[in-house]
Design goal:
Blueprint (H helix, E strand, L loop, with lengths): L6 E6 L5 H11 L3 E6 L10 H4 L14 E4 L2 E4 L1 H12 L8 H28 L3 H19 L12 H14 L6 H5 L1 H11 L2 H7 L19
Parallel strand pairs: 1-2
Antiparallel strand pairs: 1-3, 3-4
C-alpha cells in the first residue's frame, strides 16, 4: 500500500533484510508504507509476483528491497538505510568525518562480513551447529570492537547498533544451548538495549511488527 507523502519500502513477506530497515524507519520516526511480495511454496518456490514486475517499476537497478520516496526510487539495503537516516535523523550517522567514516565502516562490516554470510548459511546448509559456528566467527571481531561500551560509538545509539539488533535475533533463534550468548554477552546486551529504546520497543509491541518468518520457504533452516 502506498500513500501520498509517505515513503514506501518493498520486500518479500519475511523478516530478512526488511526488519533491519524497519528498525531504522521506526527509530527515525519515518512515515512509511510497505509493499510486500510473497514467494510461493515447494516444490518450485515461485517468485513470479516479483520477477513479472521488477522491470516495470522504474528502478535503475531492480532488486528487493527497494524504496520509493515521491519521484525518487532506489535499491540496495545499506544505501536505503543510510538514505532513511540522512532524511529523518542524520545525527545517528555521526558528527565528525572520523565518526561518519567509522559508522560507514561498521555498517559494511556488519552487513557484508556478518549478515550476508550468516543468512546464506541458513539458506544453504541444514546443520544448525555449523551455522552457529559461522555466526560466532563472523561476529567475533564486531564484539571485540564493541568491547565494554554500551553502543558501538559510545553511550548513545547510532546506525550500526540498529543494524545489528535483528541479526542478533536471528542468531539467538538457533542458539539453543546459549553458546552465542555466553561468548558475546556484550553483543546480546547491545541488542537488548536497542530493543528497549522507546521507539523500537513501541514498534516491537505494535501490529507493524509482523509475525513472519526470517526467510523464504526455500531456506534449509527457518527458525
Amino acid at each position: 500500500m502506498e500513500s501520498e507523502g509517505k515513503i514506501t519500502v518493498a520486500y518479500w513477506k519475511i523478516r530478512g533484510l526488511f526488519r533491519h530497515i524497519q528498525y531504522v524507519l521506526e527509530y527515525c520516526g519515518a512515515d512509511y508504507d510497505t509493499k510486500i511480495y510473497e514467494a510461493g511454496g515447494p516444490p518450485d518456490y515461485c517468485r513470479k509476483v516479483w520477477f513479472d514486475n521488477k522491470f516495470n517499476l522504474g528502478l535503475d537497478f531492480p532488486n528487493l528491497p527497494y524504496l520509493v520516496d515521491g519521484d525518487f526510487k532506489m535499491t540496495e539495503t545499506v544505501p536505503i538505510i543510510f538514505y532513511i537516516a540522512e532524511k529523518y535523523k542524520p545525527e545517528i550517522l555521526g558528527e565528525t568525518p572520523q565518526e561518519k567514516a567509522t559508522i560507514q565502516m561498521l555498517m559494511n562490516i556488519i552487513h557484508f562480513e556478518a549478515k550476508e554470510p550468516i543468512t546464506w548459511d541458513f539458506y544453504l546448509i541444514e546443520d544448525r551447529a555449523k551455522t552457529l559456528e559461522g555466526a560466532i566467527k563472523a561476529i567475533e571481531p564486531i564484539a571485540k570492537f564493541l568491547g565494554d561500551k554500551d553502543y558501538f560509538m559510545g553511550d548513545k545509539p547510532m546506525l550500526p547498533d540498529l543494524h545489528i539488533a535483528e541479526l542478533v535475533h536471528l542468531v539467538l533463534a538457533i542458539d539453543t544451548e546459549g553458546e552465542f550468548a555466553e561468548k558475546f554477552p556484550n553483543i546480546v546486551a547491545l541488542q537488548k538495549r536497542v530493543d528497549n529504546l522507546p521507539e523500537i520497543k513501541a514498534f516491537l509491541e505494535s501490529d507493524r511488527c509482523k509475525d513472519i518468518p526470517f526467510h523464504n520457504l526455500n531456506a534449509k533452516q527457518n527458525p
